[in-house]
Amino acid sequence: MALSTIVTLMLGTAVSSSAAPAGRTPAVVPRVPTDKITELQAKIAALEKAYGGDLAKLRDARVAARKAQFKSRKLDYDLGKARRVVGQLAAAQYKSSGLDPAMIMMTGENPNHLLDGTVLAEHVSAKRAAQVERLRALAAEQRKARKEAKESIEELEDDIDKLLKRKDKVRALLRKYKPESPMVGSSGLTGRMLTVRTEIESKFGPFPMIGCLRPGDPQDHGSGRACDFMESTGGSYPDAERQAHGDQVAEYAIDNASRLGVSYVIWRQRIYDMRSPGWDSMSDRGSTTANHYDHVHISVF
C-alpha cells in the first residue's frame, strides 16, 4: 500500500474518531465570512450617527463577535497545523517500522538494529498518539468556536434589527435631547452631564471617586457626556454595602432618565440603554473595572 494512502487513512481515522458518539458524524459548522463583522460595523457606525452617539451595547456585541471570530480562525490554523504534524508522524512510523513495530521482531535482523528500530517506532507511535488526541480536542474546540462565532454574529444582527425597529422612538428622544457642547470651567462636561453628576453626588455621595472627562477617549468620556461613579477603587471588588449602593445609583439614573437626559447606564457587566430599554448582559472584558463591577457608568445624550 502506498505511503500517502496509509497516512491519509491514519489522519481520517484520527479526525472522524475525534468527533461525536460512535456511528454519528458531527455536524459541520460553517466558518463565519470574514467580511461579515466589517459589514455590521458599517451599520453600527451609521446607526450611531443617526441615533445620537455611542451605542455601547452594539459596540460590546461587536467586540464579543470579533473575539469569537478570532478564536475560531486561530483554531482553524491550529487544527491544520496539528493535522500536518500527525501526518508527518504517521509517515515517520511507517518508514521506520515497515508496517507495524511488532512485525520487526519477526524479521531476524541484527539484534542491535532491531532494537534501534523498535524503540524508534515505539517513540514515534507514542508521539503520534498524543498528537492524535490533541487533534481530537482541537476538532471539538473548533466546532464549538465556530458555533460561538456564528451565535455572536446572529446576536449582533438581532440587536441592530431591534434598534432599527425603534427608530421613530429614538428620533423622538433625539429631538428632545439635542446635542450639547462641553462647557469651559465645568471640567469639560456638557451641561446635561454636569447636572447628572451634581444630582447623583448630592443624593448618593460621597463616592470613593467620580471619573468623567477622559481626553482622547473615542466614546462618551471623551466628549464630556459620561461619568463613572466608583463604588470601590484600585480594581477591588466592592463589598455588599457598596454593591447595594451601586444598585440604587443605577436604578435612580434609569428611573429619572427622561428628566435628566440619560442615554444609558452600565453596572455589573450589564447595560440599560434608553433607546432599547431593559438590562442586557455584556461580554466579559477581563477585569472588575472593565466589567463595571466597581463603578456605575452613566452616559447622557
What is the topology?
Layout: H1 3-16, H2 36-50, H3 56-97, H4 101-104, H5 111-165, H6 167-176, H7 191-204, E1 210-211, E2 226-230, H8 240-255, H9 257-260, E3 262-266, E4 270-273, E5 276-281, E6 295-300
Antiparallel strand pairs: 1-2, 2-6, 3-4, 3-6, 4-5
Descriptive keywords:
301 residues, alpha+beta, 2 domains, six-stranded antiparallel sheet, 58% helix, elongated
Can you give a write-up of this model?
The chain is α+β, with helices and mostly antiparallel strands and 301 residues long. It has two domains: 3-165, no CATH class; 178-300. It has helices at 3-16, 36-50, 56-97, 101-104, 111-165, 167-176, 191-204, 240-255, 257-260; strands at 210-211, 226-230, 262-266, 270-273, 276-281, 295-300. Strands 1-2-6-3-4-5 form a six-stranded antiparallel β-sheet. α2 packs antiparallel against α3 (56-97), α2 runs parallel beside α5 (111-165) and α3 runs antiparallel to α5 (111-165). The model is unreliable at 1-11, 13-25 and 98-115 (pLDDT under 50).
Q: Would you summarize the structure shown here?
A:
With 301 residues, the chain is α+β, with helices and mostly antiparallel strands.
* Widest sheet: strand ordering: 1-2-6-3-4-5
Rg value = 29 Å
Count of separate DSSP helical elements: 9
SSE succession: HHHHHHHEEHHEEEE
- Give the beta-strand count: 6
Number of domains: 2
- The rough form would be described as elongated
Indicate the multimeric state.
Answer: single chain
Strand percentage: 5-15%
Terminal Cα separation, in Å? 73 Å
Which structural class matches the secondary elements? alpha+beta
> Unreliable segments (pLDDT under 50, ≥5 consecutive)?
1-11, 13-25, 98-115
> Main β-sheet, in a few words?
6 strands, antiparallel
